[in-house]
Amino acid sequence: MKCLRAVGMTAAIAVLCLAGTQYSSSAGTYLLPGFTGLGYNTIPAPDGLAGAIGCGPTSGAMIVDWYGIASGSTAVAREMGSAAYMKTNPQGFGASADFQFGLEKWVADHGSGASLDVTMHMNDTIYNYYNWSPLSTADGSIVTDANYYNADWTINKSAFCDLLKTEIQAGNPVEVTVDSDGWGTVDNSGTYVSTDHWMVAAGVNTDTQQWYGFNTYDSSGHWYDIESALHTGDSQTGGSWNNGYYWKQEGDEGDMAVGYLRTMDFTPSSSGPDNGVPDGGSSALLLAGGMCVIGIIRRRLQ
Is the dihedral angle over the CA atoms 190, 192, 196, 202 positive or is it negative? Predict the structure, then answer.
């Protein structure tokens, strides 16, 4: 798997504390200061145990570490990936819904009264394309309010940046599901989907229109250009159609191309640390699942 090059920051960063939230800002850049990246999504796994940890549990461990619920240890990530929570297999793969609800359940079981409500944000057209059960618009697990896609499925970068900025200013990590290498993947049912990786975003630059994410392969943060995992315009070459869905050639849209986002409402425990995040604060969780099988089906544009 590849990742785009990291872009260094040289400007001085002023830390702002607004209404109980904490973030840092400089020259259009908004970051969560001190966010800890984890690189557990490797083979062999860093704890020396058999089986991959995977991107979902690695991302989840980063999130609970940020909120002060637990340390982001390999033991925490391993437990998140167990059959009781995210249900990842020995290769680190798992279902999108299991990652979402598994993270919520892990926090409920280990958060000493803290809770985390995860919501998937997507376009209503995407929702109608795919069977997202047990995710549902009825119970709030999905909301079809994603306004950052243009009609041709390119991304409106200003709208995307505004969404991330709002979440970072609220003091929360932001989640994205991405296509890690331009190929997409095939899920456990044999269906082609356009995304294959969970990540955590912890920053955005509204001037350069890039997002700052932790890819689970290493512990460093990286700056990524905003690309769409769903765009299938005429400019793409070398791809093919598979059962009505576009199978992109590597490099068509760039590494870590965005599919959709998940946000969270975190309610801290009354007896535990809350890392400065206000009660009920909303966080966008850009969990894109690298070694996990998750994704969006994109129909051919007519």
Answer: negative
Beta-bridge partners for 25: 14, 30
Amino acid 232: pLDDT: 56
Q: Are 56 and 287 in contact (CB under 8 A)?
A: yes
- Whole-number Å distance between alpha carbons of 164 and 146: 12
DSSP-based three-state secondary structure for 225:
strand
Backbone angles phi, psi at 122, to 5 degrees: -150, 170
- Are β-strands 115-121 and 210-214 bridged in parallel, bridged antiparallel, or unpaired? unpaired
pLDDT in tens, 3-42: 322 223 323 333 343 333 467 778 899 999 999 999 999 9
Give dist(CA 179, CA 181) in Å, integer. Answer: 6
pTM attached to this predicted model: 0.78
Q: Are 249 and 182 in contact (CB under 8 A)?
A: yes
Main-chain dihedrals φ then ψ at residue 276, nearest 5 degrees? 80, 5
Give the E-state strand segments of the chain in sequence order.
Answer: 14-18, 21-26, 29-31, 115-121, 142-143, 174-179, 185-186, 192-193, 197-205, 210-214, 221-225, 240-242, 245-247, 257-267, 281-285
